[in-house]
From TrEMBL:
SUPFAM superfamilies: Aldolase (SSF51569). One of its GO terms (molecular function) is 3-keto-5-aminohexanoate cleavage activity. It comes from Mycolicibacterium hodleri. InterPro entries: Aldolase_TIM, BKACE. This is 3-keto-5-aminohexanoate cleavage protein. It comes from the Bacteria. Gene3D superfamilies: Aldolase class I. Residues 35-57 are annotated as: Disordered.
Length: 238
């Protein structure tokens, strides 16, 4: 079985949640390199301002992407377009339109305002679109859109209280859309490790990192992203 693990190295978390959460471009580069050495085949990150807040500002994105590219040339690299980073559909679209140093792909939560329009912007810039689906309503909306054919990945992203039954219902709905894109399944906090294992059982792509959890399978706090990736690879290799 082929194992595909993407490292999600920081997410919308802030450094007060973990002292070694990567924030600066240099820290993101170090996290990406160590996660890749631990077995990650791609990296997803949230470019941040110095105080740890997510940013879609072209200069902030350029600095983060450039640093990771220099540290790990050729590693597929993605960034967030999360609405919380710039909660205005037009302003978010203009910010992404102004990106000059481009990631390979960007995550796009389908149920956020203005996401279908932002998807067109991303595709027009040659950036792959990872569609994030958090519930059945979002999956149904995506299934009726042109992004079924044009997204590079479909991500089933579940909250901590959701489990295998919800995942299976989502996966069934997505399969019915007949998208050529691979599917990635992951959870958050309490659901993170059970859904990672379920992704392995289902032969799906998955992800791990400080965005999704700060604890290892044994419940201890992880020292860094690389330890999470290594634990995921070992779990999926059983």
């Amino acid at each position: 079985m082929t194992i595909y693990v993407k490292a999600c190295v920081n997410g919308a978390r802030t450094p007060d949640e973990h002292p070694d959460l990567p924030v600066s471009p240099e820290q993101l580069a170090e996290a990406a390199l160590s996660a890749h050495h631990a077995g990650a085949q791609a990296v997803h990150m949230h470019p941040k301002t110095p105080d740890g807040k997510d940013s879609l500002d072209p200069d902030v994105v350029a600095a983060a992407v450039s640093a990771v590219r220099a540290a790990v040339p050729g590693l597929p690299l993605g960034v967030t377009t999360g609405f919380w980073a710039l909660p205005d559909p037009d302003a978010r679209r203009r910010a992404v339109e102004a990106w000059t140093v481009l990631p390979d792909f960007a995550s796009l939560n389908w149920d956020e305002p203005g996401s279908p329009e932002l998807a067109e912007v991303l595709l027009g810039k040659g950036i792959g679109v990872e569609v994030g689906l958090f519930n059945l309503a979002a999956a149904a909306s995506w299934a009726e859109s042109t992004m079924v054919e044009h997204c590079m990945r479909v991500m089933v992203e579940l909250d901590g209280h959701e489990g295998v039954a919800v995942a299976d219902a989502m996966l069934e709905r997505i399969a019915a859309a007949n998208s050529p894109a691979p599917v990635l399944l992951h959870g958050l906090d309490e659901s993170c490790w059970p859904l990672l294992e379920h992704a392995g059982v289902c032969g799906l792509q998955t992800r791990i990192g400080m965005e999704d959890t700060l604890t290892l399978p044994d419940g201890s706090v992880t020292p860094d992203n690389a330890a999470l990736v290594l634990a995921a690879v070992q779990l999926l290799s059983r």
